[in-house]
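Lecture 7 notes: from sequence to structure.
We start with the chain below.
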Amino acid sequence: MKITLILCLVLAVAAAKFCPSEKDKDQCRAGDSAYKCSVFFEFLTPRRKLTWIGALPDALKKAKNKAEVKEILGDVTAESFNTFPECSATAANARCYTTLGKQKSVPLDSCDRNLINTSGSETIGDYLCKQVRRWLRNDAGFKSGGIKDLKLPFYYSTCNGDWTPVSDDGVDLYADENLCCNPDGTFFRCDGSNFNSVC
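Predicted C-alpha cells for the same chain:
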C-alpha cells in the first residue's frame, strides 16, 4: 500500500506541467524568432525552483482590447515579441528588463493591470495568493500559517532557449515586494504595514 501511494505521488509530480499551455515539455519557452518575459514564484515548493505565474506576450490573450494591452505593455507591442530574428540573449534580456523593470516596483496591493493581474479586478497580491493557495491547498504548513516572503523573480526565454534570469550587471531582477499570504488565499504585507484590500 505504501509503495503504491509513493508511486502515485512520484507520478503526480512528474506529470505536473511547468505552465498551463505546455506542449511536449517545452516549458512554454519562446518559439523560433521570438522572445518571452516571465514572472515566477521562486521555491513555492521544495521540489520546484520555479512555479509559473505568467509570461508576455501570452498573458495578453486575456486582455479585452488594445487599450488594455497598451496599459499592460506601455509602448511595447505584442507583435514585437514574435518578430525577433536575431535571437540575441543580450537583446531579449535588455527588452525584458525594460518591460519588467516598470512592473517590479508596483505594490502588491495595487489594482493596476499588468503581466500578473491582467483584469485589475482584485489586488495583485490577492490574485497571486489565490494561485499560491491552489498550489498548496494540501500543504499542512500553508493551511496552518500561510506563506511568508515568497520571492517573485523575472525570467526571459528566446528562440526555444531555456528560461534565464533577467539581470543587469549580474544582479537578477525580482519584484521589490515579497509575497505573503494567509491560509485563506488572501494577501498581507510581509512587514505588517497597512495595505489596500479592495479594488
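Points to note: Residues 111 and 123 are 5 Å apart (CA to CA). The two ends are 49 Å apart (CA to CA).
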